[in-house]
Amino acid sequence: MRKYIIVLMILLGVILVLGFSQEELKENVLTLNDKPVGFGEATTGGAGGKIVTVDNVNDFKNYAQVQEPYIILVKGVIDTSKETGQVNIASNKTIIGVTPDASIIGWGVYLKGVNNVIIRNLTIKNKVENPKNDAITVEASQNVWIDHCTLSSDMVVAPEREKDKDKVDALLDIIKGSKGITVSWNIFENSWKCTQVGSSDNSTIDAEARVTYHHNIFRNTNSRNPSVRFGTVHIFNNYYQNILLYAIASRMGAKLLVENNYFETIALPITTQFESPQDGYVKESGNLYWECGDNNITQELKELRVPYQYELDEADVVPYLLDKGTGAGKEVEIK
């Protein structure tokens, strides 16, 4: 009898281990039914449209630029380096990488005056040196979800390289009053200019901006992680590493809610004063600072409520969660 009990316990243990292993594996499996959290929660992309697969720039442009909704599965490397500029993306599109090397290399992509676009599981690299080349530009658009991407310009960010900072632009610019935007589970790396909301100190239309950044890694950048002018932005559960100048800046009266982020060895994690005639506002709470300098918050926001449900992870577990779960190259389940 004792022998059978021991065998039963071993079998139970195996089942439990397998169960946990399957759960572990499912954490990084993306599906076409996943939903964004944050200001971009209404985004559905190309849902209801045809599913097509592309592996070259011509097919990619063809499906990305037509007016009908499409779910575009990207296989392998889409080389845009011979294009004359960024590739335009039309409304009602889901663009998702389905192979480990799924990527857009060369020029980036441009969302201008569009609605309802999802970009997921892609490596996008600025390989063309041009001051107008963002990895992704979102201009005067709404309902956009950028998720599980790895965005890079492959620049070595060091003080002696400042002279090269304008050879390419940012990794993600959200400008001209774009709203309903969620930026989640991405890696931003190796770029002097990272991501900003609001294009200039005169672009007052950017007061309409509504953007959520959550569960992203920002590393080896100089600044703009993000920099925000005028708009309302929620920043939570992000991981900041090796930022040269500053991590987050609130400018021109922008309103930022900054919660449960992990800042590691950063001289200036959060500032409300940077190269603008007016300071911004920040409400910060639950953040963890490891060997960082002091924040420079001149205007504290008393309260900022966001119109959506979300769950906060504790800041001390953020590095583990994000090292494991962010960026491109995830498995995608197509059903």
Outline the structure in words.
By secondary structure, the chain is mainly beta. Helix content is 13%, strand content 37%. It has 3 helices and 29 strands. The strands form 4 sheets. It has a 10-stranded parallel β-sheet, with helices on one face. Helix 2 links the parallel strand 2 and strand 3 (70-74). The N and C termini lie far apart (47 Å). Mean pLDDT is 91; it is low at 1-26.
Entry summary:
This protein is mainly beta and 335 residues long. It has helices at residues 2-26, 57-65, 318-325; strands at 29-31, 50-54, 70-74, 77-79, 87-88, 93-97, 103-106, 109-112, 115-120, 123-126, 136-139, 142-147, 150-152, 172-175, 179-184, 187-193, 195-197, 210-214, 217-223, 227-229, 232-236, 239-243, 248-251, 255-259, 262-264, 270-271, 281-285, 288-290, 331-333. It is 13% helix and 37% strand.
Essential attributes:
335 residues; single chain; 37% strand; mainly beta; ten-stranded parallel beta sheet; globular
Cα distance spanning the termini = 47 Å
Principal-axis shape? globular
The tally of beta strands, per DSSP, is 29
- Count of helix runs: 3
Helix content: 10-25%
Going across the major beta sheet, what is the strand order? Answer: 2-3-6-9-12-15-18-21-24-27
Largest sheet: 10 strands, parallel
- Going by helix content, strand content and strand pairing, the class is mainly beta
Rg, rounded, reads: 21 Å
Q: Calculate the mean pLDDT score and round it.
A: 91
Estimated share of beta-strand residues: 35-45%
Low-pLDDT regions: 1-26
